[in-house]
């Protein structure tokens, strides 16, 4: 076999392999896409925001079952309270209520820890 024939065979093998790779990607694409879209729809349902009326919040007015509203967000700090993470008992005054003013009247609440805790214990928004 002369050199020219060898080169032609190598080029042909290369072209066939490239074509196969291309076709393989084409057929797997829809699978990748469908996985991506099903993941997206799962994310949507996970992120669904719950909403509660003030009457529903008012039922949770105990230290061991405490919901409160701050800036239209419903917060359930029951576990936070049980773990002794609030520096005092004054948080209990807000259980079952819209505690926005009580919360905002405390300058320390503007710090990163209270703001992070609000996000962590948020369970929904006020209807
Ligand atoms: C009726 C509602 C609330 C009242 C009256 C209240 C009251 C207070 C007071 C007086 C302090 C200052 C304590 C000190 O100087 O040592 C404080 C600190 C703090 N509160 Fe509240 N609180 C309320 C709700 C909340 C909520 C809902 C959260 C979070 C879920 C929270 C998280 C914190 C944190 C993390 C601190 C410590 C801040 C720091 O020392 O940097 N509080 N709170």
Structural write-up:
With 127 residues, this protein is α+β, with helices and mostly antiparallel strands. The protein folds into two domains: 48 residues; 76 residues, Cytochrome b5-like heme/steroid binding domain (Flavocytochrome B2, Chain A, domain 1). Helix content is 54%, strand content 13%. The chain has five helices and six strands; from the N terminus they run αβαββββαααβ. The strands form two sheets. It has a four-stranded mixed sheet with strand order 1-6-5-4. Bound molecules: protoporphyrin IX containing FE (HEM). The site of protoporphyrin IX containing FE has 23 residues, from helix 4 and helix 5. Protoporphyrin IX containing FE (HEM) binds next to helix 4 and helix 5.
Total beta strand runs: 6
CATH top level class name of the largest domain: Alpha Beta
Helical proportion? 40-55%
Mean pLDDT: 84
Structural class: alpha+beta
Number of helices: 5
Name the descriptors.
single chain; 127 residues; alpha+beta; Flavocytochrome B2, Chain A, domain 1; four-stranded mixed sheet; two-stranded antiparallel sheet; 5 helices; 6 strands; rod-shaped; binds protoporphyrin IX containing FE
């Amino acid at each position: 076999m002369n050199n020219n024939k060898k080169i032609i065979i190598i080029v042909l093998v290369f072209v066939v392999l490239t074509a196969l790779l291309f076709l393989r990607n084409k057929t797997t694409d829809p699978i990748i896409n469908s996985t991506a879209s099903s993941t997206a729809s799962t994310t949507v349902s996970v992120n669904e925001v719950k909403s509660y009326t003030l009457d529903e919040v008012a039922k949770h007015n105990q230290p061991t079952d405490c919901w409160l509203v701050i800036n239209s967000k419903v917060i359930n700090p029951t576990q936070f309270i049980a773990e002794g993470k609030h520096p005092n008992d004054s948080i209990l005054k807000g259980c079952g209520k819209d505690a926005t003013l009580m919360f905002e009247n405390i300058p320390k609440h503007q710090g990163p820890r209270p703001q992070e805790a609000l996000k962590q214990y948020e369970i929904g928004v006020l209807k």
